[in-house]
Amino acid sequence: MKSIIKESLERSMSYEAYRALVKQLVDEHSNTGVNKSEELADYTKLNDRRMKRWDKTVRITQEAKHSMTEFQQKVTWLVITESWCGDAAHVLPVLNKLASLSENIDFKVVIRDENLQLMDLFLTKGSASIPKLIVIDNLTGEVLDTYGPRPSEAANYVKRFIAKNGKLTPAFKADLQHWYNDNKGQNVIEDVIQMLSKLQTTVFQQT
Predict the structure, then answer these.
(1) Which region, left, alpha or beta, applies to residue 184 given φ > 0 means left and ψ of -120 to 50 means alpha?
(2) Which of 74, 84, 94, 158: disulfide with 188, CB 3.0–4.6 Å?
(3) Is the distance from CB of 77 to CB of 108 less than 8 angstroms?
(4) Residue 99, CB half-sphere, CA atoms under 13 Å: how many?
(5) How far is Cα 135 from Cα 143, in angstroms, rounded to an integer?
């Protein structure tokens, strides 16, 4: 596992580089990943607009800012994504905003289809679902936790719908986008703060 993660980190890029890549793909009417299509290129264009909006408008509460600045463990947040992924367009800008508040967090991005061995290590119920955040201890290289592909409330929303209807419908996917727009990244912030709190507690107990 460590060797695969190390190789993926060597291929990773900063959030800023990822945003520049997506903008370039929009200009080329293309998308990341192995499969290139008109539909995925259109999603990439839409997601570029979504990320641009969230980069400007995500608001972090003072309590959350305090939690981030208090996080003392040096870690890397490695996020697996693709330009066409709707969930990722809403989640990545929030993760980046949170990571930027801590000098102890290095935020990196990799493309799923270019890192399939890594993705296979972090499947969600057997599925290569993205975005997937992997929290890596910089000192030991150990994976401390993972997060994604969706924030907890959205994940429960999807789970309930599938249990009732068997699969996601286009109408539901549209509703899910409305949920993201209404929530404004706050559920991601809550989830991540809770995750980091648990990590800090574990470190404290071990020392």
Answers:
(1) left
(2) 94
(3) yes
(4) 24
(5) 6
